[in-house]
């Protein structure tokens, strides 16, 4: 019976994914041209690997196209469903923080917009507000599923838990957005896993939202894969991280997302470990450079090789996450 019930949701998800990919592919060339004409071009950090300097001037803020494609395709395929609206609200809110960051960076002619503590402070406030909103919804609630243990009601502690998930994934996707096609491809893989989780849980509208994210990111690779013609910018990476967290909250698969998005977790953990070890040892490093993908660059791996191998790791994490989700 569950398989029969899931069929309409699967069709909706396929439509949403195909529509999102189509919007990005068709609108991509004009969007890139418009961003370039408006002067929305990437500045590369001075401490980035030397070969990244050649990417200076590439149009950025392509995440605006991703946001439009995700919202349009999800609303067309599922209508104004409460789960879709909740997910889009989270996606748009974190995308707005990223957009402000991008605009400040361009205005100041540098790679960084907000200071790290300013950006993190805004994200934490936003995450707590959205966590409170989730906890107040009877159809979401404050219960999480612990693999091997069972359901656990966090009560109002869920607000903090949800905020950590939102902020953590927004920043983790942002950190992974350092090589051409890396973040977009990994989000597409993770979002595909969320589609499976949502369909299994008989939540077709959540599957539609996840498919829209996966399709938009897959279409974005047409222009963002090596050598990239456009970057998504913080508006894209922050929005996509928020979207993954929101879908996990909607489907009550918060713990499973830590496995499904395991590569993002590893990227963020590499930065935390590097900073902590550097301070504890007075200047020694674990990695040649963090996030993790930069370490492999400095080891000598070609950029496309790193991206392909990270994709493979993403699929392995997806399989593990689906096992955890049960």
Structure in words:
This protein is mainly α and 326 residues long. Helix content is 72%, strand content 2%. A two-stranded antiparallel ribbon has the order 1-2. A hairpin with a 3-residue loop joins strand 1 (143-146) and strand 2.
Number of strands: 2
Mean pLDDT, to the nearest integer, reads 91
Coarse morphology: globular
Order of helices and strands: HHHHEEHHHHHHHH
Please outline the major beta sheet: 2 strands, antiparallel
Strand content: under 5%
How much is the radius of gyration in Å?
Answer: 19 Å
> What distance lies between the first and last C-alpha atoms, to the nearest angstrom?
18 Å
A few lines on this structure:
With 326 residues, this protein is an all-alpha fold. The protein has helices at 2-37, 63-78, 82-108, 116-136, 157-176, 182-200, 204-224, 233-250, 254-260, 262-281, 292-299, 303-325, and strands at 143-146, 150-153.
Descriptive key words:
326 residues; mainly alpha; two-stranded antiparallel sheet; 72% helix; globular; disordered N terminus
Describe how the helices and strands are arranged.
Layout: H1 2-37, H2 63-78, H3 82-108, H4 116-136, E1 143-146, E2 150-153, H5 157-176, H6 182-200, H7 204-224, H8 233-250, H9 254-260, H10 262-281, H11 292-299, H12 303-325
Antiparallel strand pairs: 1-2
Helix pairs in contact: 1-2, 1-7, 2-3, 2-7, 2-8, 3-4, 3-7, 3-8, 4-5, 5-8, 5-10, 6-7, 6-8, 6-12, 7-8, 8-9, 9-12
């Amino acid at each position: 019976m569950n398989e029969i019930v899931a069929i309409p949701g699967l069709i909706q998800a396929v439509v949403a994914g195909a529509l999102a990919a189509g919007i990005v592919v068709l609108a991509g060339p004009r969007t890139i041209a418009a961003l370039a004409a408006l002067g929305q071009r990437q500045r590369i950090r001075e401490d980035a690997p030397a070969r990244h300097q050649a990417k200076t001037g590439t149009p950025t803020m392509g995440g605006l196209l991703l946001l439009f494609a995700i919202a349009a395709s999800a609303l067309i395929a599922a209508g104004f469903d409460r789960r879709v609206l909740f997910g889009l609200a989270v996606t748009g809110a974190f995308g707005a923080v990223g957009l402000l960051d991008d605009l400040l960076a361009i205005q100041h002619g540098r790679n960084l917009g907000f200071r790290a503590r300013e950006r993190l402070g805004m994200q934490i406030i936003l995450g707590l507000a959205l966590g409170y909103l989730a906890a107040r919804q009877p159809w979401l609630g404050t219960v999480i599923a612990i693999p091997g243990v069972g359901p656990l009601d966090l009560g109002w502690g869920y607000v903090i838990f949800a905020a950590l998930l939102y902020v953590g994934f927004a920043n983790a996707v942002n950190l992974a957005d350092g090589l051409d096609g890396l973040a977009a491809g990994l989000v597409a893989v993770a979002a595909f896993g969320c589609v499976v989780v949502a369909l299994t849980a008989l939540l077709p509208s959540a599957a539609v939202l996840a498919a829209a994210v996966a399709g938009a990111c897959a279409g974005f690779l047409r222009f963002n894969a090596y050598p990239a013609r456009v970057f998504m910018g913080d508006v894209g990476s922050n929005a996509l991280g928020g979207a993954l967290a929101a879908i996990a909250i909607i489907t009550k698969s918060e713990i499973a997302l830590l496995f499904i998005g395991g590569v993002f977790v590893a990227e963020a953990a590499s930065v935390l470990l590097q900073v902590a070890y550097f301070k504890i040892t007075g200047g020694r490093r674990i990695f040649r450079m963090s996030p993790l993908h930069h370490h492999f660059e400095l080891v000598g791996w070609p950029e496309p090789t790193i991206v392909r191998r990270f994709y493979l790791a993403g699929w392995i994490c997806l399989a593990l996450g689906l096992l955890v989700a049960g």
